[in-house]
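thread: overnight batch results

M.L. [08:02]
morning all. the overnight job finished for the chain we discussed friday. pasting input first so we're all looking at the same thing
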Amino acid sequence: MQVFENILWWLVLIGVMIMIHELGHFWAARFFDVKVEAFSFGFGPRLFGFRRGETDYRFSLLLFGGYVKMAGEQVGDLAGVDVNDPRTFLAKPRWQRAIIAFAGPFMNIVLAISLLTGLFMVKYQKVADEDMKAVIGHVIPDSPAAKAGIQDGDRIVKLDGKRDPSWEDVDLKEVASAYQPMYLTIERDGKRLDTTVVPTLSERTGTGYAGWDERGEVQLGAVEPGYPAEKAGLQKGDLLIAVNGQPIHSISKFQELTKNSGGRPLQIQFKRNGQVREVAVQPVFAKLDGPAKWMIGVGPQQKLNLITTRLSLPEALRESLRQNAKGTLLMGQFLKGVVERRMSPKTITGPIGIAQLSGEAAREGPSAFVMLMSMVSLQLAILNLLPIPIFDGATILMLFVEMAMQRDLSLSVKEAVFKVGFVFIMMLLAFVIYNDISKILPAG
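M.L. [08:03]
and the structure it wrote out:
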């Protein structure tokens, strides 16, 4: 049942993205009086649709995207087209064609900003300042952080020259810094120490890995049916206090104690409805979301103290612009990291992964779904502006090249670029789908 829900919400998400993106191209084309022959939701053979005026509005077989087909736009479209017709795409000045190409990604950027602005005017959540402090909850043995001398309870007071970084700052720097040094100043027992951590590249996530975890309260985000935790009476939302007498201040500490239990019972102390309780849980050696290991069937998560409020329109717009600018910077860092082989392409999420995220966000609530839609819309805009054949960015780049040369590129060159782009897109689609499936199927 969840699979169908995921597909439904994915169609809603991707449908809005495509509609807004293609409307940008459509409106710009109409503004410059370009004849629009087709407005398609999806690629491939036409399934159904309707004609209004000179435009065929259609649904096509492959619902992974969409397009606006303008007269004389694509290589091979000139057959049967009056080359003297001023309403063909190629008859328009290059600057107008560039604006038409840019209009799609631009509308996705506008959507991303508008969604967050509207959301923040209704519901804005901010993590309490106390929970934002960069305090180490646990250091994994033999990890880069452990080798750098980082200890549980250390507070990071400076990160690459930035004073009082939040844990979010530390986390974002870590994932983008595989094989690159992170220069830290830590505070321990009232003293300040300088050290350097060089994250490695995690095989599991494809991002930088330092081997530390944030200090904070840990609660159960999920309890798997039929596993030891459920049988022992643990429930979602239970706040973990200690395991076998060892205080729990981080997710990784709890996971380490469970994984290294060797099958011996775990005495878990937790709090529920203000009351402290304790149960004995017998771990099992099983597969759940990866290789077989000792587990009790729970998904621990950080408990954050959230402050909920509403922002005025100017405040909401400013915060939306800030978060979208931050998202753009992160996307740029990711692409740079992939090129420099500091981040793995396997972190890219494809249609199956986005469908899962769509379903999860929808089940969590409207706010989570709007946040996801905004993020996907921004990423779609950035990807489309990359100079990859078939993407809008490649069209814009070729137009600028033609402006510089003061002449058109030959049709043979454009046809070759189009073919290369098509092959690349098909290979990319196959890769991300394989990527998504490999994340779902258990390892080993």
